[in-house]
């Protein structure tokens, strides 16, 4: 094989684009979370259904100055467990708006 005919930069770009497309496909479509924050505030954020509950908690902790270690998220009265994807939680589906209760406990 003559390496002079191989366009390495083009190959890298194709591989990067393919990897990015796979990552987006794995994360899926978006869901909108309508979050009741501690203190009575409300927030609305959209996430890919493939992200984890822990990711959402980290995002909320950073955006709303909440303590990650104490933050609990509930939907339909059920605890949303950190390692699960949003798609694994009851009532969460692409394109839906889901009520989520955030508490520090």
UniProtKB/TrEMBL annotation:
Residues 1-27 are annotated as: Disordered. It comes from the Eukaryota. Residues 9-26 have a biased composition (Basic and acidic residues). InterPro entries: Ubiquitin-like_dom (IPR000626), Ubiquitin-like_domsf (IPR029071). Residues 31-89 form the Ubiquitin-like domain. This is Ubiquitin-like domain-containing protein. It comes from Chlamydomonas schloesseri.
């Amino acid at each position: 094989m003559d390496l002079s005919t191989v366009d390495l930069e083009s190959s890298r770009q194709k591989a990067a684009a393919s990897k990015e497309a796979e990552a987006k496909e794995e994360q899926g479509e978006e869901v909108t979370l309508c979050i009741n924050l501690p203190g009575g505030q409300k927030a609305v954020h959209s996430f890919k259904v493939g992200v984890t509950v822990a990711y959402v908690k980290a995002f909320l902790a950073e955006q709303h100055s909440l303590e990650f270690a104490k933050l609990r998220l509930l939907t339909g009265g059920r605890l949303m467990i950190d390692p699960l994807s949003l798609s694994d939680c009851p009532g969460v589906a692409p394109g839906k708006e889901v009520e989520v209760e955030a508490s520090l406990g």
